[in-house]
Design brief:
This is FlgD Ig-like domain-containing protein. It is elongated, with a radius of gyration of 32 Å. With about 500 residues, it is mostly beta strands. The strands form twelve sheets. A five-stranded antiparallel sheet has the order 3-36-35-32-33, with no helix packed on it. The protein has no helices and 43 strands. It is about 0% helix and about 45% strand. The protein has three domains: about 260 residues, TolB, C-terminal domain (Neuraminidase); about 100 residues, Immunoglobulin-like (Sandwich); about 70 residues, Immunoglobulin-like, CATH 2.60.40.
Length: about 500
């Protein structure tokens, strides 16, 4: 029998406490410009292949481009015959089909895209349209025609057959007025992934949102030039994340709102150069999150990248202890940006009070960046224990401010709780025994343990924290002590 089998086992333990950091996720840049000459363009669409269609309204033509902005073909021409147009202003695509709002002829025309050419298919007239201005198509192929002169919306199937779409649960498709479901010269329309309909109610200086069957959901916007206000908005576009972009025509800017209509940011001023607008009229967002802006009086189309601006946002190390003890005293906030820009980083406590302005409008170059935080607040004192949030904001040369990114950091000065015992709570152990170990911390997770047979840890083994561990006790009979340090992820 092994002589150690009946030896008594005694354990003591030592505990340490640190920090934990947990990241979380909360652009327009210098635009491309379609170099083709347009005459008062008033409509744009992008198909699933990334091909672009621009309505050159002054020419009564639709021009098609590849996804790299290379001209492919054009179709149309002035007139009221099949395939001809009079002041066309709206366009939408569904698979290989193209639908054109032929405004001056009070109709919608349907075409088929054959690659390098486009052929006429049919006309939707219904003897109902009066100066229609825009069209959108939902993911199931339903068409919504903005019949501006009649201040209403008509819903059609892919063949032009009317579908029930009534405002406020009545048979009214819209009417002139300022109330919910009423319009005053609406100009732009879009549909989101859920089938909800967004309308730029131009003369009422607002955006109205409806369900796919016409029930009113919400509205936002008032007349003015302050952030969130509008002056005859001409169009609205919604991306897959629910961000709402508005062509604020007479303020010569694009505004961005969240799904609830809360203002986020704006960009653009009056002018004729890239990044400036005269009369932004139509918007379209493609699947690659490129925002196309038709600026009619500047006779151009500008393309902005509004995809994720920040990537690789994280802290390294993921936890730190800012107490000047020389052990993990600082943390770095890491992020990658897609262009040269100005960066501001603020850190807030759990009550949403600002505790540290890490940097403000700091010039940073394209690529990976890193900012250091030593755990001090704006007065120079170390922050107290708790959860802190950092927010990264950017502002580029065009004054575009993308959605911020951020994360949280937990400052943890409390000690983890821990215990250790022999497997199955045995009173006696052999030299080669099995330990049960337990450690926890309210704010941080324990990831490391240091085990030793000596109180000064002169000989010790550092291991990944585990609840069960084989351990070799000192040889000989008698009472043995095992010393354990539990270390959380802050070091």
């Amino acid at each position: 029998m092994d002589k150690f089998k009946k030896q008594k086992f005694l354990v003591t333990s030592i505990f340490f406490a640190w920090f934990i950091f947990l990241p979380f996720n909360i652009q327009a840049n210098q635009p491309d410009l379609l170099t083709e000459i347009f005459h008062h363009p008033c409509g744009i669409a992008v198909n699933e292949a990334g091909e672009i269609y621009v309505i050159s309204t002054g020419e009564d033509l639709v021009k098609k481009y590849s996804g790299t902005y290379q001209f492919v073909c054009s179709f149309g021409g002035t007139g009221n015959g099949a395939g001809q147009f009079s002041q066309p202003q709206g366009i939408a695509t569904y698979k290989n089909l193209i639908f054109i709002v032929d405004t001056g002829n009070d109709r919608v025309q349907k075409f088929r895209d054959n690659g390098n050419s486009v052929e006429f298919v049919s006309i939707f007239n219904l003897q109902q349209f009066y100066y229609p201005r825009d069209i959108t198509i939902d993911d199931t192929g339903n068409l919504y025609v903005l019949d501006s002169g009649n201040h209403r919306i008509l819903k059609l199937d892919i063949n032009g057959k009317p579908i029930n779409f009534s405002m406020l649960g009545t048979n009214i498709l819209g009417e002139f007025g300022t109330g919910q479901g009423q319009f005053s010269n609406p100009y732009g329309i879009d549909a989101d992934a859920s089938g909800n309909i967004y309308v730029a109610d131009s003369r009422n200086n607002r955006i109205q949102i409806f369900s796919s069957i016409g029930h009113f959901l919400k509205e936002f916007g008032t007349q003015g030039s302050n952030y969130g206000q509008m002056f005859e908005p001409q169009d609205v576009a919604v991306d897959k994340e629910g961000n709402i972009f508005v062509a604020d025509m007479y303020n010569s800017r694009i505004q961005k709102f969240n799904l609830n209509g809360r203002y986020i940011q704006s960009f653009g001023t009056f002018g004729h150069e890239k990044g400036k607008f005269f009369t932004p009229q139509k918007l379209k967002i493609d699947r690659n999150k490129r925002l196309y802006i038709v600026d009619s009086n500047n006779n151009n189309v500008q393309v902005f990248d509004v995809s994720i601006y920040f990537t690789d946002v994280y802290a390294s190390p993921t936890a730190f202890s800012p107490n000047d003890d020389g052990i993990v005293d600082v943390a770095f906030i890491n992020y990658t940006i897609r262009e040269n820009t100005k960066i501001s980083i603020d850190i807030y406590n759990k009550n949403k009070n600002l505790v540290k302005n890490l940097c403000s409008d700091a010039e940073r170059t394209k690529g990976q960046q890193q900012e250091l935080w030593d755990g001090r607040d704006n007065t120079g004192a170390f922050v107290t224990e708790g959860v802190y949030t950092f927010i990264i904001r950017a502002r580029n040369a065009l004054n575009y401010q993308p959605s911020p990114k951020g994360g949280v950091v937990t400052v943890d000065f409390s000690q983890p709780l821990g215990s250790v015992s022999i497997r199955n709570d045995a009173v006696y152990a052999t030299q080669n025994t099995i330990l049960n170990l337990f450690a926890s911390d309210v704010l941080s997770s324990v990831d490391t343990m240091v085990i030793s047979n000596y109180s000064n840890f002169s000989t010790a083994e550092t291991l990944v924290y585990n609840s069960i561990q084989n351990w070799l006790l000192l040889p000989g009979e008698g009472t043995r002590e095992v010393f354990v340090k539990y270390i959380d992820i802050a070091g």
